[in-house]
Amino acid sequence: MIGGLSGRTSFGLLFVERFFLPDNLRGSGLGSRLIALAEAEARRRGCTRAALFTLTFQAAGFYLKQGYEVAVQLECTPPGATRMLMTKKL
Question: What is the CATH number of the domain that holds 39?
């Protein structure tokens, strides 16, 4: 395994817990396809919304491009970093 996505569904919500791709695969479209597959499976299970946490210096831009919106921002360590709860209507 070189990367992947794990999450869970409950109460109509897909929660993406972990999502990682190595640098050499980022920008290839693989991440977008993995998220789309997870969202399709969540819809099949009756989910109407997706949610995840990320940090400003991680993948916030990627998720915004996938249609996620920032629901909550929390300042955290290291100074200047912000943890974000992002959601998307499925």
Answer: 3.40.630.30
CA–CA separation, 90 and 81 (whole Å): 28
Q: What global pTM score does this model have?
A: 0.88
| Domain, as residue range, for 72 | 4-89
Give the Cα-Cα-Cα angle 35, 48, 34 (nearest 5 degrees). Answer: 10
Select from 69, 74, 62, 73 the least CA-distant residue to 87.
Answer: 69
Residue type for position 29: G
Helix, strand, coil shares of the chain, percent, nearest 5, are: 25, 45, 30
Domain count within the chain: 1
**Please, which pLDDT band fits residue 44 given cuts at 50, 70 and 90?**
very high
Distance between CA atoms of residues 84 and 61, nearest Å? 12
